[in-house]
Design brief:
alpha/beta, 9-stranded mixed sheet, 506 residues
Length: 506
């Protein structure tokens, strides 16, 4: 009994002291990282000569707001975002002796604490080509009598991809609430067996396999053909979104995408492991979700190895790198580890999110915090060279914010997102809006406005070339206006949306 009491006391001390040590020890890491990025930030300037990624302004009280770095390659869109996205530079995280100042505690709070959301969901079960099932949960206000949205609606659709563990967190619920208040149609993508989705085939979705997501996007385009499609992923769910964007390229039919606290180098993330209490909770949660399918999964995998796993890596290996006929028993010889390692490496060759990153053809914003306790060390887990060299990727890097949290000071007013299709809901205003949600909505608005401006400029140039030729403009008077080339009006025509590619990447 005494031993258990001592173990409990040690566990409580670790849980309480570890977040505090991370909080006080993160300042030097932050300063070192910002100094290391200083040379690359100085090259990212707009037309006025301002640095694009250095944000450290006075908040009017004499104190300086915390820095927010926008790291990207210089381009026309980057300059446009700098000019029109005010939320990028207005982030005041919680500081001082409050639990929200701890990255660990606020991350656990956003992931585990229940949230009384005024949003209800209408589910569409989609049968896939292999008879499997995924689900799309369409968010609608609880006070709305009509549960279905019109297929002729021109409202933009926001496809939300939650974490790879299938749990719908406070972050996802608040994002649905905020998106609804600004005129979006949020739809949450649930993988096979996730969030009470029936498992109709003996097959689970691999970490970075976008096949099911591709069919879900095709269904969304069929149901809402007149609305633009945007995508947001949370945490490890970003692996699926980045894989989809890389494999589909310019045929993704998504206008812009945002990754909230993404995990980029997933193989090393699984191999290095999380802080043991977090890893133990995630492994236990996955085992509970999979236990209802233990009998049917036994036909293809070795369930004894699966449910005896004690780490995320061993759990992933048991699900996708071994079968019931080829899996090694518990007392396998030491030589079997090399075979398992080879299968593990082969698995990540097919599922690493950044494997086809050069094929991504739309703007992608990643919102990350340097004190993220889930992702790990910033310098080794964030591919900074990707954002500095690829014009399609943008990184918002904050000093504090935890994992998918980004808690702000309690007295900070919720800044509205200008240019959205609906009036913000009073309930959302009273509760306050997550800073990362405001940033992504501004990013979507700014990129859409940039696309429209580029299209107008191209149409004007086409008219001038086609109708203004000839001496003295006489050809213009005799030429019909109908000879002007009309751009396709369909919002999901990806080739029409991205014919401004050269201007965007210049």
């Amino acid at each position: 009994m005494l031993e258990w009491l001592v173990a409990l006391c040690i566990t409580i001390l670790v849980v309480l002291i570890w977040p505090g040590s991370e909080y006080f020890g993160s300042e030097s890491k932050t300063d070192a990282l910002l100094q290391g990025l200083e040379m690359s930030q100085q090259t990212v300037k707009d037309k006025t000569g301002r640095r694009l990624s250095d944000r450290d302004e006075s908040d009017g009280t004499g104190e300086k707001s915390r820095a927010v770095a926008l790291i990207c390659k210089p381009s026309a869109l980057a300059n446009y975002l700098l000019k029109h996205c005010r939320t990028f530079s207005h982030f005041t995280p919680c500081l001082g002796w409050t639990w929200r100042a701890s990255a660990f505690l606020q991350s656990v709070y956003e992931a585990c604490w229940p949230y009384d959301s005024p949003v209800q969901f209408v589910r569409d079960n989609l049968q896939l080509s292999d008879d499997g099932l995924v689900a799309l949960d369409w968010a609608v206000p609880s006070y709305q009598k009509r549960r279905r949205t019109s297929s002729h609606s021109t409202s933009p659709v926001l496809l939300i991809i939650p974490n790879s563990f299938g749990r719908i967190t406070r972050n996802v619920l608040k994002l649905c609430e905020t998106a609804l208040s600004h005129g979006y149609l949020p739809a949450v993508f649930n993988r096979r067996s996730h969030n009470s989705t029936p498992l109709t085939t003996v097959k689970l979705q691999q970490f970075g396999d976008p096949t099911d997501l591709r069919e879900a996007v095709r269904y969304i385009r069929y149901r809402q053909p007149a609305g633009r499609l945007y995508a947001v992923s949370e945490s490890t769910g970003s692996g699926l979104l980045l894989s989809y964007l890389g494999e589909c390229g310019s045929s993704s039919y998504i206008t812009a995408a945002v990754c909230l606290s993404p995990v980029f180098r997933c193989q090393s993330w699984f191999e290095s492991g999380l802080y043991w209490p977090l890893q133990w909770v995630l492994v236990l949660y996955q085992k509970i979700c999979l236990s209802r399918y233990k009998t049917v999964l036994g036909e293809t995998i070795q369930t004894d190895t699966l449910f005896s796993s004690c780490s995320l890596r061993s759990l992933e290996e048991s699900l996708f790198c071994q079968t019931a006929h080829s899996a090694f028993p518990t007392g396998a010889p030491s030589g079997s580890s090399s075979i398992s390692s080879g299968a593990w490496d082969t698995y990540w060759e097919r599922n690493e999110p950044l494997r086809d990153v050069d094929e991504v053809a739309i703007p992608v914003l990643s919102v990350c915090a340097q004190d993220d306790p889930i992702r790990g060390d910033t310098q080794s887990t964030i591919p900074l060279e990707l954002f500095e060299t690829n014009p399609h990727f943008f990184l918002l890097l904050t000093e504090r914010g935890g994992h998918c949290s980004f808690s702000t000071q309690p007295g900070e007013s919720a800044v509205g997102v200008v240019g959205c299709a609906a009036v913000p809901n009073s309930v959302t205003e009273n509760r306050g809006t997550n800073w990362s949600h405001k940033a992504l909505l501004e990013f979507f608005r700014a990129t859409t406005d940039f696309f429209a401006a580029e299209e107008r400029a191209k149409q004007l140039a086409a008219r001038r070339r086609g109708l203004g030729g000839g001496a003295g403009g006489r050809v213009f008077r005799h030429r019909s206006v109908s000879t002007c080339k009309r751009m396709p009006a369909c919002s999901h025509n990806i080739h029409a949306i991205y014919n401004w590619q050269r201007s965007y990447t210049r």
